[in-house]
Design brief:
By secondary structure, the protein is an alpha/beta fold. The protein is built from ten helices and 18 strands. The protein folds into two domains: about 290 residues, Alkaline Phosphatase, subunit A (3-Layer(aba) Sandwich); about 80 residues, 2-Layer Sandwich (Arylsulfatase, C-terminal domain). The chain has a ten-stranded mixed sheet, sandwiched between helices. A four-stranded antiparallel sheet has the order 15-16-17-18, covered by helices on one side.
């Protein structure tokens, strides 16, 4: 009887997931497609031509949209990178973890090795899991010896394979880490890293402008690698230090290789591109191609890499058995630490689309990002206006693969992601710089009072921080120009109560 009930339960799960999935032959295939998350860095909704609000042409990303479901109301949980990545992989709002802020390159692992994660959940479902590209979620215990195996890291939170940069391309250490070990390190030239004390005899960008091929604009004037000064100090490890121009090709090759190695069984790949984060140093094949300077060129480079990766899925006959999610960790920024003509050459391009703000901001452009789902043959191509968030992928994919969701913040949006429902979230909390939050409910956004200014935020970004309440109706005012808080006090009161209820849920 128990076996019969178990069988009935499995049949009900498969039948209930989606009518589109029923087209797949066999229940096992129906609930366990390969899963790929393609994650860009600082890419705005206006940077993707499929959204029709910018000047760049991104045919690679557009092809995903043409064959998939493009969300107009898709969100990252945070307007900065570390918190968004934390939420994506854990399903938890990042502001619930006080340490989930932009991390230095020597920060300890942010994710508790005992907590639920997307790769761990999928691993239980029989998936082989990997992360390739930018990590920026900390490594080790805060006292890392970069010349030994570094633990804990991605492999200790559910990934079977990891090939990453530790933090960001503008922070030391400027090396790749494969399954916890620095790639290409010469034991006779040990790597040392510090975020407090410079190393004697090691030049920095400050006072050595002649050594630089890219000038810093703020904060990025410490250790030099590949003619670019970064945040933090490093010494040694010269044979392991990356060449920025080759980074995109290397991450692409790693992503393709993982897929090829694991094509015969279910796999999950978190392919985390570094573009268009600073420093923007695209390969010579793309330099000067966009007409918008290095930032635009870096986006074209990323678009090409994404196109090549998607071609690999097609070439291996995996397209109809691979669910692809494309998105960005937060909104766009132009000058973010280097003089790279991003402002001068931007012209009339609008990376932020029709929204206000950008990276770091509580205004819409900080977290309202490109969000596309493609599962060829199972998700109908089209556009969805449902409100969705990246941290709901954990609960949704848990249901798809027959797993339990153990994270209260993550909501099951599987029917929405697969295009069978327009009933997205009713509400969402988003985070700007320094853990400050705002509340989206239906067409309305409430930004509670937050003291500013945020001194580390680029001057061209409006943070949205104010000493007064702000209330906007996005349906009528997507650019958030008219604050309705004073004429609508009852709405402010009601939304404040709902917002605090989510915060207090713990």
């Amino acid at each position: 009887m128990k076996k019969l009930l178990s069988f009935i339960g499995i049949v009900c799960l498969v039948a209930g997931v989606t009518s589109h999935v029923d087209r797949v032959e066999g229940a096992e295939d129906a609930v366990k497609p390969n899963i790929v998350i393609i994650y860009t860095d600082d890419l705005g909704i206006g940077d993707v031509s499929a959204y029709g609000v910018g000047k760049l042409d991104t045919p690679g990303i557009d092809s995903i949209a043409e064959e998939g479901l493009r969300f107009t109301d898709g969100y990252a949980t945070s307007a900065t990178c570390t918190p968004s990545r934390f939420a994506l992989l854990t399903g938890q709002y990042p502001w619930r973890n006080k340490d989930a802020q932009i991390l230095p390159g020597d920060a300890p692992l942010l994710i508790n090795t005992e907590q639920e994660t997307l790769p761990r959940m999928l691993g239980r479902a029989g998936y082989t899991t990997a992360v390739v590209g930018k990590w920026h979620l900390g490594l080790g215990d805060g006292n890392v010896d970069w010349n030994e195996r570094i633990t804990p890291g991605p492999n200790e939170v559910g990934f079977d394979y990891s090939y990453i940069m530790a933090a960001t391309n503008d922070r030391v250490p400027n090396v790749y880490v494969k399954n916890g070990s620095v790639v290409g390190l010469d034991p006779n030239d040990p790597l040392e890293v510090s975020y407090s004390t410079p190393f004697e005899g090691e030049p920095t960008g400050y006072g050595n402008q002649g050594m630089l091929k890219m000038r810093y604009s703020n904060g990025h004037y410490y250790s030099i690698n590949n003619g670019i000064s970064r945040i933090g100090y490093q010494k040694g490890g010269k044979s392991a230090q990356w060449i920025d121009e080759d980074m995109s090709d290397l991450f692409l090759e790693e992503a393709q290789a993982f897929v090829k190695r694991n094509r015969a069984k279910p796999f999950f790949l978190f392919y985390a591109l570094h573009q268009p984060h600073v420093p923007r140093v695209p390969h010579s094949r793309f330099a000067g191609k966009s007409g918008l300077g290095p930032r635009g060129d870096a986006i074209l480079e990323a678009d090409w890499a994404i196109s090549e990766f998607m071609y690999t899925l097609d070439e291996l006959d995996l397209a109809e058995n691979t669910l692809v999610v494309f998105s960005s960790d937060n909104g766009p920024v132009l000058d973010d630490g280097y003089y790279d003509d991003s402002v001068i050459k931007n012209g009339d391009h609008t990376p932020w689309g029709n929204f206000r703000g950008g990276k770091y901001s509580l205004f819409e452009a900080g977290t309202h990002i490109p969000f596309i789902v493609r599962w060829k043959g199972h998700v109908d191509a089209g556009v969805s206006n449902a409100l969705v968030s990246q941290h709901d992928l954990l609960a949704s994919l848990a249901r798809l693969t027959g797993q339990e969701n153990a994270v209260a913040d993550s909501m099951d949006m599987l029917d929405v992601f697969l295009g069978n429902s327009e009933q997205g979230r009713d509400a969402l909390i988003v985070e700007g710089y320094d853990g400050k939050t705002a509340y989206r409910e239906g067409d309305w956004v409430l930004i509670p009072p937050h003291e500013g200014p945020a001194l580390d935020v680029p001057e061209n970004i409006e943070t949205g921080f104010s000493s007064e309440y702000q209330l906007y109706n996005l349906n009528k005012d997507p650019g958030q120009k008219k604050n309705l808080a004073k004429p609508r006090p009852a709405k402010v009161k009601a939304m404040s109560k709902a917002y605090l209820a989510v915060v207090d849920r713990g």
